Q: What sequence folds into this?
């Protein structure tokens, strides 16, 4: 079999075309840097949800649990490395009284429970979102992500990536303090 | 004053890289040896000035000169000198300077060691290398200048990310960059070959040592990074498919494919077109990785300070370099001669399979890494891309690759028969199945996955040994003859044996540590103990103390076996006041059979401590396997250097016997023979 000249030319130019498409995608991706892009839901009410339990024998996590409170909803998974890096700091924040709720995303509840047993459990309530339904409604792009929800159930802020001391002191803590005073 | 000298050195280096590029392209066109020699001198000069700039930055960090912005932002007077120096590349600006330093080092090394190359070709290679240097020096000067001053000068620096205060920072990034950036040579040689026109695959002969060197460094760099993550992150993981890890894995996968396809071009004059493309793509992956890390386009634990201008700049570099390279390829490749004929069931055929699988694996890692981005752009459904994705895609593709990599080296070049091959492969099959069944029986059939992994590892290790058995005719010839043959084996063959052995060891480690791991957690007060994997773990005491720039809580834990053998472990938690953050320092006892890994968690209200413990059987072989693989690369490189004289003779009998690969010479026929 010998390749015809035309086919050979097409095959030789194909990588360039593929790369062209990729470059365009990367260009637009750069415009929508996920760490600065606010969730489309910012300022809007969080969707209704009721998630099954992660910890054996507890009631899971539903929207009613956070009604009238200022809370952080942390999306994580036992498979997520960055979540494991974030975890000790969540433990520290929880020990200091921060109201952190958890959504165990795309994860087997048993794996999620094991992680909490091994690494500690910072969550007031935690629910399993194995199907990814809630996370889809929230516009989650990856784990970990953390949503700040106010007393009226509106999403006020979305943190993409781990909560670091800088993020906590510079953004989340002041916002929480303001929301708690404000109403 | 000193920072200004550093800045000035960068300008001079930029000037020289422009000279290197221009002279490298113009010299061969004018056929002017003096212009071509200028490109060489400029490469030395560029390296000299980048090295001086880098040395100046090291000095600024060592002396804690907080009048320089990056020093103030990333260092602290209380930090030990060792980490002050390492902080030079522990942040965006400094690590980009290291990037360019490595680039310039490779340029200068090509200018120095590449004397055996034709002058025009060397000049063009240096021209391309200089062009990349121009891009990245402009990037540093305009968006990431490490010598920017800060006023007013602060009395104290802001400190260093405590996670980076580990001996790993000294070796991991420089090694990784030597590999990552070293693949620029593959790009430069391929582009120079495309500009020059068909040269019968000769360019591969010149490029191979550089590609190998980069591959060795990248292998070591990734292994060191994995080892570092294991000890410092405190949860016993060694790889977690983070975008930045993937960014280093993708060039490694393509680089591995490249090392193999280069073999075919060099020995058999086939796959030249493909190897050109692969060379361009390998370095493109390095550029893409740099883009991912610096632009913050994907969320990662490794992310540096994000600045959209930097992302845009690197994207432009990526588009110009990769786009330019691929366009040139598109124009030139159809004109290249087709390679020699080979059967599918042959050494070449197996190397093609190797390439197809490695490229497909790279594709899945690429898709997994960028999926969140593509999904976001299309505004559709989202999926999680984590370990489950890679378990589903990576493993089914890696398994045939690992199975085939034993078969390949035992096949003859050009054409082989199934019957002869089965006889050669027999011992490997027999031993692999024995281990599979024995492991299965020993674990009472409860851990069949472990049996599969260990069977696969045996297959690989025995397969590596079979190369030696075959080449030295062990068992077929008298022992003295076999010894003589083994001693006469080319270093490159030893390299292949050792590198394949390394993969076997790696698979052994991965198998043990993933399928037979145990983990546990307990709340322990001083004097209390808990059983774990047949040992009694006792918390002796918990003490606090002060390190140079941190406070620590250290637990002493003894793990006592029934026989009385005691392992002393001292996990720590460290608190760094200047950054108000904590790190975990796990304590690991490593043995060839498995690791006992203990991490100290929080103290609960009743005063007891959370202690996490893990057992990772055979884990040490993950990293030893990586280093052994790199050692194989070193042997191949040494062989390449000592045996690089022009080889003559193209004995078909020799080729068929498989005792010695056919040599590639400039005079050998390269005409189009078509593909069978």
A:
């Amino acid at each position: 079999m010998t390749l015809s000249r035309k086919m050979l030319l097409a095959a030789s130019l194909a990588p360039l075309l593929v790369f062209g498409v990729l470059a365009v995608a990367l260009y637009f991706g750069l415009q929508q840097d996920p760490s600065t892009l606010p969730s489309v839901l910012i300022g809007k009410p969080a969707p209704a949800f009721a998630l099954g339990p992660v910890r054996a024998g507890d009631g899971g996590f539903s929207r009613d649990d956070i009604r009238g409170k200022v809370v952080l909803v942390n999306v994580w998974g036992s498979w997520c490395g960055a979540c494991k890096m974030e975890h000790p700091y969540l433990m520290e924040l929880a020990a200091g009284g921060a109201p952190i709720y958890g959504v165990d995303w795309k994860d087997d509840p048993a794996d999620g429970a094991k992680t909490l047993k091994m690494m500690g459990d910072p969550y007031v309530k935690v629910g399993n979102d194995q199907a990814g339904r809630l996370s889809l409604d929230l516009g989650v792009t990856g784990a970990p992500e953390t949503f700040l929800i106010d007393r009226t159930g509106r999403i006020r802020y979305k943190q993409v990536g781990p909560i670091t001391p800088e993020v906590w002191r510079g953004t989340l803590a002041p916002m929480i303090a303001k929301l708690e005073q404000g109403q | 004053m000193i920072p200004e000298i550093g800045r000035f050195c960068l300008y001079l280096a930029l000037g020289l890289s422009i000279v290197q590029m221009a002279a490298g392209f113009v010299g061969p066109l004018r056929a002017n040896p003096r212009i071509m020699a200028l490109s060489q001198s400029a490469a030395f000069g560029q390296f000299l000035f980048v090295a001086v700039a880098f040395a100046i930055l090291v000095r600024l960090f060592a002396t804690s000169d907080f009048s320089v912005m990056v020093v103030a932002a990333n260092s602290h007077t209380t930090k030990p000198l060792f980490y002050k120096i390492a902080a030079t590349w522990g942040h965006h600006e400094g690590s980009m300077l290291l990037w360019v330093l490595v680039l310039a080092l490779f340029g200068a090394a090509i200018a120095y060691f590449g004397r055996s190359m034709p002058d025009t070709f060397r000049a063009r290679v240096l021209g391309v290398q200089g062009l990349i240097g121009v891009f990245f020096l402009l990037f540093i000067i305009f968006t990431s200048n490490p010598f920017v001053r800060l006023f007013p000068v602060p009395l104290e620096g802001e400190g260093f990310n405590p996670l980076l205060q580990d001996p790993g920072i000294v070796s991991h990034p420089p090694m990784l960059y030597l590999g990552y950036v070293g693949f620029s040579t593959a790009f430069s040689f391929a582009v120079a070959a495309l500009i020059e026109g068909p040269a019968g695959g000769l360019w591969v002969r010149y490029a191979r040592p550089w590609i190998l060197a980069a591959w060795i460094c990248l292998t070591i760099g990734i292994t060191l990074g994995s080892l570092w993550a294991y000890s410092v992150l405190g949860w016993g993981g060694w790889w977690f498919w983070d975008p930045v890890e993937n960014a280093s894995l993708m060039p490694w996968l393509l680089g591995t494919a490249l090392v193999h396809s280069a073999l075919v071009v060099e020995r058999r004059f086939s796959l030249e077109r493909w190897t050109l493309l692969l060379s361009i793509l390998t370095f493109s992956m390095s550029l893409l990785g740099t883009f991912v890390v610096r632009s913050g386009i994907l969320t990662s634990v490794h992310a540096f300070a994000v600045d959209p201008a930097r992302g845009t700049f690197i994207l432009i570099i990526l588009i110009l370099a990769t786009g330019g390279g691929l366009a040139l390829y598109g124009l030139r490749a159809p004109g290249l001669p087709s390679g020699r004929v080979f059967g599918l069931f042959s050494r070449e055929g197996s190397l093609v399979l190797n390439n197809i699988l490695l490229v497909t694996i790279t594709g899945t890692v690429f898709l997994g890494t960028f999926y969140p981005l593509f999904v976001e752009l299309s505004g559709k459904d989202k999926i999680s891309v984590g370990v489950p994705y890679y378990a589903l895609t990576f493993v089914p593709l890696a398994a045939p690759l690992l199975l085939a990599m034993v078969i390949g080296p035992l096949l003859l070049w050009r054409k082989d028969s199934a019957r002869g091959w089965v006889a050669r492969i027999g011992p490997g099959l027999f031993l692999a199945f024995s281990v599979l069944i024995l492991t299965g029986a020993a674990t009472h059939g409860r851990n069949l996955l472990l049996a599969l992994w260990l069977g696969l590892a045996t297959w690989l290790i025995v397969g590596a040994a079979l190369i030696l058995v075959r080449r030295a005719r062990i068992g077929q010839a008298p022992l003295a003859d076999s010894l003589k043959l083994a001693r006469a084996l080319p270093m490159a063959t030893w390299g292949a044996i050792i590198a394949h052995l390394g993969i076997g060891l790696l698979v052994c480690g991965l198998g043990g540590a993933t399928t037979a791991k145990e983990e546990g957690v307990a709340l322990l007060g001083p004097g209390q103990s808990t059983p774990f994997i047949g040992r009694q773990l006792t918390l002796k005491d918990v003490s606090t103390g002060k390190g140079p720039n941190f406070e620590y809580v250290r637990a002493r834990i003894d793990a006592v076996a029934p026989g009385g053998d005691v392992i002393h472990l001292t996990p720590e938690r460290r608190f760094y006041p200047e950054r108000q953050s904590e790190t975990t320092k796990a304590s690991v006892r490593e043995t060839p059979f498995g690791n006992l890994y203990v991490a100290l968690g929080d103290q609960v209200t009743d005063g007891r401590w959370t202690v996490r413990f893990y057992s990772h059987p055979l884990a040490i072989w993950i990293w030893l396997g990586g280093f052994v693989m790199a050692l194989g690369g070193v042997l191949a490189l040494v062989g390449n250097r000592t045996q690089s004289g022009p080889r003559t003779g193209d004995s078909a009998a020799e080729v068929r016997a498989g005792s010695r690969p056919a040599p590639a010479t400039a005079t050998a026929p390269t005409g189009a023979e078509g593909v069978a």
About this structure: Residues 1-160 of chain B form one domain. The mean pLDDT of chain B is 85. The two ends of chain B are 68 Å apart (CA to CA).
